[in-house]
């Protein structure tokens, strides 16, 4: 019987399966469940995934999660890039409609459509944990992130946390930190002179999350010719937002600006002005919560007029970069195919390929359609005891119960 295969043979068979199939395999037979959960196999499996160097992404569609991989092997050797549609990830719980997703260290923070709960999920290990956020006005747009602090040097013992924040009124913003290792929830109200646009997405780098932000303009300011823009970072160690971090570009209203985490080590920014087809991608050479420096040379600068003929929308253009191959992949709705997504592979010297990326569901409420994903062995600490709520005042902030 196949369940009686020798351990080495079973590992060879299981190592060829996609991530989305691992949960089904564990239910198939006791022996395979044991093999798949062994640390030796897990390390081998994840090492082989990373060695394949495909870009794995999670796609939110029809309120479910779908796994895709982008293969760029040999694109400079006359080989075509390709998309592998690995299928739908298993349901977390029947009937739960996923609206937003964030990623950090192999963990997915999933926000259901009704916004009344949050769930953290490791698709590879099959572990989940639900969180109940503090009630807030449903008309206020919430932003989410998952990260970890730097208190432990071991990647196996990281202290994961969840952030939710939203702008309330005037110059006030409230943020909440949810913990894995204790049952506290900390709501803090602070004064903020910046804001994140409704469609902006955070990018996680080394356990902290960065957003593209703009200076908050008072409602009675009249006509504004330009607005200061910058990066802001939430530091999961200090549990505070850091100072404004400079950008290599300056944007205006309706310009396209999106972020991407490069190997969880650097940050990339895609920029395309609304009134031109010229696209730029810049990559940092140093990124920390309180400091940033950018490479002096742009990673990619391309005139898109002869290639595409239209601008990417300001609320879309999620992207990936391959530094070695000097290419970017931008995911957006297809121009010529209604109801489909397209992956645009853009490189130097006029390199350009368009690939079908799947159906564009009318139920998708959020851009971008993809979240970069890397499987990991990060374990989700489960809740113990009774949940508590604390009100904490940080130095230099105004904290109050809301």
UniProtKB/TrEMBL annotation:
Coiled coil feature spans: none
Domain F-box: 1-45
CDD domains recorded: F-box_AtFBW1-like (cd22157)
InterPro entries, per the entry: A_thaliana_F-box, F-box-assoc_dom_typ1, F-box-assoc_interact_dom, F-box-like_dom_sf, F-box_dom
UniProt-listed Gene3D superfamilies: 1.20.1280.50
PROSITE patterns assigned: FBOX (PS50181)
Family annotation (Pfam families): F-box, FBA_1
Domain of life: Eukaryota
PANTHER family hit by this protein: JACALIN-RELATED LECTIN 37-RELATED, OS09G0372900 PROTEIN-RELATED
Name listed for the protein in its UniProt record: F-box/kelch-repeat protein
Lineage per the UniProt record: Eukaryota, Viridiplantae, Streptophyta, Embryophyta, Tracheophyta
């Amino acid at each position: 019987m196949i369940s009686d295969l020798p351990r080495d043979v079973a590992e060879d068979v299981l190592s060829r399966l996609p991530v989305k199939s691992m949960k089904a395999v564990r239910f198939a037979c006791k022996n395979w469940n044991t093999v798949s959960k062994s640390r030796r196999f897990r390390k081998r499996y994840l090492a082989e995934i990373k060695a394949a160097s495909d870009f794995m992404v999670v796609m939110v569609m029809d309120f479910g999660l779908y796994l895709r991989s982008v293969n760029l092997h040999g694109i400079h050797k006359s080989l075509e890039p390709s998309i592998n549609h690995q299928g739908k990830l298993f349901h977390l719980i029947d009937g739960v409609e996923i609206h937003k997703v964030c990623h950090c260290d192999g963990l997915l923070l999933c926000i259901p459509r009704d916004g009344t709960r949050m769930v953290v999920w490791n698709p590879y290990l099959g572990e989940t944990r639900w969180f109940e956020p503090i009630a807030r006005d449903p008309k206020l747009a919430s932003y989410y992130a998952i990260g970890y602090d730097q208190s432990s040097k071991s990647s196996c013992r990281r202290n994961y946390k969840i952030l939710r924040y939203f702008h309330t009124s005037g110059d006030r913003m409230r943020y909440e930190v949810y913990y894995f290792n204790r049952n506290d929830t900390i709501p803090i109200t602070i004064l903020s002179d910046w804001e994140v646009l409704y469609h902006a997405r955070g990018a996680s780098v080394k356990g902290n999350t960065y957003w593209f932000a703009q200076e908050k303009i008072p409602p009675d300011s009249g006509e504004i010719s330009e607005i200061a823009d910058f990066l802001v970072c939430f530091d999961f160690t200090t549990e505070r937002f850091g100072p404004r971090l400079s950008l290599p570009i300056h944007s205006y209203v309706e310009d396209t600006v999106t972020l991407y985490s490069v190997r969880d080590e650097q940050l990339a920014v895609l920029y395309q002005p609304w009134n031109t087809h010229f696209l730029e991608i810049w990559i940092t050479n140093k990124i920390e919560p309180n400091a940033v420096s950018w490479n002096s040379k742009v990673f990619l600068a391309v005139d898109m007029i002869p290639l595409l003929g239209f601008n990417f929308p300001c609320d879309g253009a999620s992207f990936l970069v391959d530094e070695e191959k000097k290419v970017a992949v931008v995911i957006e709705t297809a121009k010529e195919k209604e109801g489909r997504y397209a992956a645009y592979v853009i490189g130097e010297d006029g390199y350009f390929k368009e690939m079908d990326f799947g159906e564009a569901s009318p139920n998708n409420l959020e851009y971008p359609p993809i979240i970069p994903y890397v499987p990991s062995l990060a374990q989700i600490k489960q809740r113990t005891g009774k949940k508590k709520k604390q009100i904490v005042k940080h130095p230099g902030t105004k904290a109050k119960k809301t």
